[in-house]
């Protein structure tokens, strides 16, 4: 199966047939849907299956010269396996899945705004100048050029538009926060444990599912050209809904975004994938000028 790595690539297998999942190791960039870069990594005649990138950038993969699969580290520079992790000669060893704490992602500077933006200054500013120390979370900033810009149809699902909207029709955004699940007690890692992380009572809207519980960060006014800028706590997963004049959600973001403290994130609209009709233009949206 395809696996996302910390280096911005998705690693996968170019299978020799439709059933085995065995073949060459390859990768493709996932951050730029309209400018993909794809490459085959293995060039050694070996068979590969079930790659798994590690947080430190290494790749762990199941591999064999012909028959007996073992688990190896893969060296992209040499286009072949390097260190053997484990190989039971009686079995084919597949699907390595190291268990480790999820690391916080790297800082990504999505924009450079200037030198004097007060509490919403982004990561180029030295930390000792930031004016929000002492808050429970250090803040981040998200700007959207046009909340009415979309390539999704009208439909019944949350990520689709509830109706046609134009500039001036979207009055606000609601920013939602995913409540991260944490397990502080290692003794709870037993078969059947973990139900307390999934919602709680049966009346919960997400009890017994993999959906995150959500709460509201707050609301932010949308300009009449559809643009909006807002600060919110950093190091917290969040998503946005666009609201009409009755406060009803017209579209909901169905993917959690994440920004490090003092970081900035740019949004071009409510879209699927990279939407390049306006995303690469120098838009002078009103939200830019109202940024304090």
Describe this structure in words.
By secondary structure, the chain is mainly β. It has two domains: 3-86; 105-292, no CATH class. It has one helix at residues 286-289; strands at residues 3-4, 9-15, 23-29, 38-40, 47-53, 59-64, 70-75, 80-86, 139-144, 172-178, 214-221, 228-233, 238-243, 249-252, 264-267. Strands 1-2-3-4 form a four-stranded antiparallel β-sheet, with no helix packed on it. Strands 5-6-7-8 form a four-stranded antiparallel β-sheet, with no helix packed on it. A four-stranded antiparallel β-sheet has the order 11-10-13-14, with no helix packed on it. Mean pLDDT is 76; it is low at 112-136, 189-194 and 196-210. Residues 168-271 form the Hydrazine synthase alpha subunit middle domain.
Instruction: Report the count of strand segments.
Output: 15
Oligomer: single chain
| Strand fraction | 25-35%
Counted up, domains total 2
Shape: elongated
Largest sheet: number of strands, sense, barrel closure:
4 strands, antiparallel
Domain Hydrazine synthase alpha subunit middle: 168-271
Protein name: Hydrazine synthase subunit A
Pfam families: HZS_alpha (PF18582)
InterPro entries: HZS_alpha_mid
